[in-house]
What we know:
The protein is α/β, with parallel strands linked by helices. It has two domains: 9-75 and 106-174 and 286-363, FAD/NAD(P)-binding domain (3-Layer(bba) Sandwich); 179-283, D-Amino Acid Oxidase, Chain A, domain 2, CATH 3.30.9. The protein is 33% helix and 23% strand. A six-stranded mixed β-sheet has the order 4-12-13-14-11-15, with helices on one face. Strands 6-2-1-10-16 form a five-stranded parallel β-sheet, covered by helices on one side. α1 packs parallel to α11. It starts with 8 loop residues before the first strand and ends in a 6-residue tail after the last helix. The model has no long low-confidence stretch (mean pLDDT 94).
Amino acid sequence: MNSTHAPRIAVVGAGLGGLACARVLQLHGRSVTVFEREASTGARSQGGSLDIHADTGQTALRAAGLLDRFRALSRPEGQEWRVLDPATATALPFPGPVHDEDSPEIDRGQLRGLLLESLAEGTVRWGRAVTGATPLGDGTWRLLLDDGTAEDADLVVGADGAWSHIRPALSDATPGYTGVTFIEAGFDDCDTRHPALARLVGNGTLLAKGDGNALFAQRNSNGHIRAYLAFRAPQDWHLAAGVELDDTAAVRTHLLKTFDGWDESLRYVLRHHDGGFVNRPLFVLPAPHTWEHVPGITLLGDAAHLMPPVGLGANLAMLDGVDLAHALITESGIEEAVRAYENLMLPRSAEAALGCAEALDNLLPPTGS
Length: 369
């Protein structure tokens, strides 16, 4: 990119997509600042395990110069899938790979750590929560922060997730509830403390699908298993059920009724998990989600194309970040770069979002289907 001065590039959000963008920019000698509302890298749990696909996530990591380090951390054995009959827990035929055959697993926190470690010191400004962006009239933008300060930028990249504070500058779309809720439960030191569950899950992911509900259980690193109990219900299902979400015993009782008739080896995840349950209603952006180009600002990852969590979101976010960085490196200016990136990303994400919506409906068909 040709410019009389180094463009001020502000990435809002230190998730996988924003960090991938920053990493590739720095590899090519470009300056970038990442604003992150969390206080530090370990401020909260980063979630479960991700399968990183050869044609998306691995492509991004290769461009970032991190593929070999990813391979060293990843778990190829985690690609294993087991499909069980909910009533008997007996194995059912597996239709084939969920994605491509080279999609090793890695904990999201490990992958984020790999990206963070690759950045120059001080790239991420922790504890800097961006609340919005205001145009300055010349194609540049002012970031508004929750401490009352502001930062100006030639390009603002909204990489701040589902509830993006940057998206309103481009689109009035907001995430809508899918009608599906996941309830998360965790198990630590499974091989020792929960050996029966560890054997049932195996090295990768277990899936049991009932009539209107489903169970995923997924092996993470360090002997941890995360389980997700999925069902269709109103977003406020707990109110109709008379259940307080922080009342673990009451949630358990309700879920045992919801999963009545399931084999007890599968209902183990309801009876013996470590800690409380976490309520995770699934939200998505309209599919396709597009916007008219606006100079000096764009979106990537969930901020641009929030879709059901069926294995594509993290991969696409990293690919978005790399594609945007490459455009900024190769095009003649910010305007040309952002247009080139959006012309590539928007059709790709539209196709992916529609596919993910179909996958969710196949897993849990809408009422009346």
